[in-house]
Every structure is written in C-alpha cells, then in structure tokens.
Design brief:
Blueprint: E1 5-8, H1 12-23, E2 28-32, H2 42-45, H3 60-77, E3 91-100, E4 104-105, E5 108-109, E6 127-130, H4 131-141, H5 148-153, E7 158-167, H6 169-182, E8 186-191, H7 197-206, E9 211-214, H8 220-223, E10 230-240, E11 259-262, E12 274-279, E13 282-286, E14 290-291, H9 300-312, E15 324-341, E16 350-357
Parallel strand pairs: 1-2, 1-9, 2-8, 3-11, 9-16
Antiparallel strand pairs: 3-7, 4-5, 6-7, 10-13, 10-14, 10-15, 11-12, 12-13, 15-16
Helix pairs in contact: 1-6
C-alpha cells in the first residue's frame, strides 16, 4: 500500500494525476521546476480544444473518451446546456468545422471505418459532409465560416462538423491547483529542479514518499535521458473576441463563432496547421506542430503566416493587432510513456512514468 506519493511536474498531466491520488485518499507532495501557472508551460498556452492530436499512441482514444466524460460531467454538474459554458466559464461546448480537400482520412480512400474512433461518440454530433451540405446546414446553425466560393477556390470539398468542449486552460489549471493546495492530504507544493531520476528518488526519500509519478513532460528528456521524447513546437496569436472586427457576412448576434481547422491543401499542413479556436474572451489563431524546432519566440515569417491565417478564418488582422503571442513545446514520443520503472522497485521505491502525451494532454 502506497503511503505518500511525490508527483513531479505540474502541467495538466501532473496536476490531474495529483488530484486523482488525493481523491483516492492518497497523500501527495507536488514538485515542479516552474510554478504551475507559469506562462511558459505548454499546458498554460494550449488552445484547450478537445480532440486527440499529435499523438499516435492507440491508447489515446480511450484516454480521450475518459477526458470527454469528465469535461461533459463538469458542465452537467454546473447545470448548463450544450452550446454553453460551465458556471465559471472554464469549459465551453463549441461547434467545430474541419476542412478537407479530399474525401479521405490520412491518405486512405474514405470509408466509415477510417474515421478516428472518437468521431463515433454520439455526444459530439459528428458529421462528415460535403462543403455544399455544410452550407445548407448553416442556414440553421449560423456559424461564422468562410464563404462557399472561398472554400471551393482553395480546393476544400469536404469537412467534418462536430461539437466539442474547449477548456480555458489557465483557468482550469488554477482550479486544479487550488484544489491540490487546499486538500487536507496535500503534504506540500514546492519548486524543485530535477537533473536526474536519482535526484527525484533522493527527494522522495527525504520527504518520506515511497512512490513517484514522473509527469515532467519535456523535462523528462534530460531527467530520464529519453531520446524518444522530442518537443513539437506550437505557436499562436490571441485576439480580443469582443473587439476584433470580422470579415465574414453575418457579423451580428445571430451568428456564432466556430472552431475552424485546415491541415491540408492551400491553407495548412500537418506541420503548419491553420486554425481558429474561440475560447472565452479570446480568439486563438495558430499554428504549428514542428518537431525538434527549438525557437523560443515567433519568427517574423511565422507572424505574417498567423496574421494571414486569421484573415482566412474571418478576423480582420489588417486593422487590429493580436493582444498576445505564445510559443510552446508539445512533449511527443512514438508512444506515451505510462509504465512502472522496475529499476527502483528493489530499493522499495515505486516509480511510474507518465509523460509524452503530445498535443493530447488536455
């Protein structure tokens, strides 16, 4: 029976791991290199849209469903309906449209079984359709989307349409942190920089922990000497939702913002996607998914591309400036490392690694 657990790392994976332990009556000590709400962390800057992304591990489908269950339960407990947010504005249910040039999935001629497993969840109201069908439906839905003419000119003939939760990541992280800090079984929440697993084990013994869960994300590359772990660099611009002028027809209260995506064709690629995520008081425009790109800022050429993406997706970026920009690094592996490390078991220390979730952490 585990007595006390050291959770290393305080991004969304670390904080949610700590909460799960606490809710199961297991005492926790939380340690991380940066404050959990530090703006540089990947979890703080993430767009927060629920959709498995940038992680090829087959187990992600099951984890994603569990996450979806929890997000929707949180909304239900707040007694809010679909197309709404929870009482604290932390989770919104938002319509999403994913544009495609071809009627295929990942290079495979389209068949129903080639769709990702998550699309089968009836709660998402997922539909695969032609652009013409989208526009017939939009007479009712009234979403702010590019015109049929613009989409056809760019070569987009098909789309996915669904409803998905979007999490206000900074707000959700704060709620998680508050629950951890105020829980009666939380031993301590402190900063600590680990250079190796041996240092982590030493710290665990020093504070009387007999188990460790390593949720250090990108930090695990050096801590665990993990050559399989790489950072996939992401970038985005944030616009003020209430004041940003729009370019599409229907810019009135009857029309709704939608999350919009393109990862092929004229507008985007898998490494340089074009997307818009409406979240709370902000509109997030991205992006990139560049493995092993270590640039900390946004290059001038990337800024121009993000501004062009904003314009493509209906924001007048020529006449309004983004209010902030962000760069982060998704911790990507060929397979998520979620396993018991038996190297330390013989010495009485249970070590579990939990990192490498890519863009599917939320």
């Amino acid at each position: 029976m585990t007595g006390r657990v050291l959770v290393a790392g305080s991004g969304v994976i670390g904080l949610r791991t700590a909460l799960e332990l606490l809710r199961r009556k297991v005492p926790v000590a939380l340690r991380s290199a940066h404050h959990p709400l530090h703006p540089s962390t990947c979890s703080m800057g993430a767009g927060g849209l629920w959709m498995p992304y940038s992680c090829d591990d087959p187990r992600v489908a099951g984890w994603a469903k569990t996450t979806l269950d929890e997000l929707l339960d949180n909304m239900k407990s707040s007694r809010m309906s679909v197309d709404s947010s929870d009482s604290n504005g932390t989770i919104e249910m938002v319509p999403a449209v994913y544009f495609h040039q071809e009627n295929h999935i990942n290079g495979v001629e389209f068949k129903s079984h080639t769709l990702p497993p998550w699309t089968e969840d009836s709660r998402l109201n997922f539909q695969h359709m032609t652009i013409e069908m989208l526009y017939w439906q939009n007479i009712v839905h009234k979403l702010r989307i590019p015109s049929l003419e613009v989409l056809e000119k760019a070569g987009y003939k098909y789309c996915w349409m669904f409803h998905t939760p979007i999490v206000d990541c900074p707000q959700m992280l704060k709620q998680m942190l508050d629950e951890v800090v105020n829980h009666e079984l939380t031993e301590s929440v402190d900063s600590d920089v680990f250079e190796s697993m041996e240092e982590m084990v030493y710290t665990a013994r020093r504070i009387d922990c007999d188990a460790i869960i390593n949720c250090t994300g990108m930090g695990a590359a050096s801590i665990c000497d993990d050559d399989d772990l790489i950072g996939a660099r992401g970038i985005l611009h944030q616009y003020d939702r209430s004041t940003c002028p729009r370019l599409f027809d229907g810019d009135d209260e009857d029309f709704k913002d939608a999350a919009l995506f393109a990862t092929d064709g004229e507008w985007g690629t898998s490494n340089e996607p074009c997307y818009l995520i409406p979240r709370g008081e902000k509109l997030l425009v991205g992006g990139s998914n560049l493995p092993d790109d270590t640039e900390l800022g946004i290059r001038e050429g990337e800024k121009k591309r993000l501004m062009e993406n904003a314009k493509i997706l209906g924001l007048d970026s020529d006449n309004v400036r983004y209010i902030s920009e962000w760069t982060g690094f998704r911790p990507c592996r060929s397979k998520v490392r979620l396993e018991l490390d038996e190297k330390y078991t013989k010495d009485g220390m249970k070590v579990i690694h939990n990192y490498g979730h890519g863009g599917s952490g939320w």
